[in-house]
Design a protein that fits this description.
The chain is about 20% helix and about 40% strand. The chain is an alpha+beta fold. An eight-stranded mixed β-sheet has the order 2-3-4-1-5-8-7-6, with helices on one face. A hairpin with an 8-residue loop joins strand 3 and strand 4.
Amino acid sequence: MENQEGSPVVHFEIGCLDSARTQEFYQKVFGWEMKPAKHNVQVDTKSKAGIPGSITSLGHEPHQYIMFYIEVKSIGKSIKEIEANGGQNHIGPLPTGNGQFFAWVKDPGGNMIGILSNNE
């Protein structure tokens, strides 16, 4: 895609209906630390080997989901590449609130993935 020098997975998101119960599960089972943020809870997996994540309760469908985000150079260009190669744009690009943009896209098999960039 876009002839980049790699497109790393940089963030994960766990969507849930019951945020408190979900946080408690991951804290007790994996020892993750939770840090409340404006629209979600940031997850610190307490490991240098992993990537950061969040737990989110959208308040609408989809309630239960797991999403990983791939970093790209440009959301708009990436969406064009995705669509040209049999994928679909599902939502976005939208601002994250911290200067980045994201979109949810589907691969040709219908799997939802997220893309994240500093550039719309």
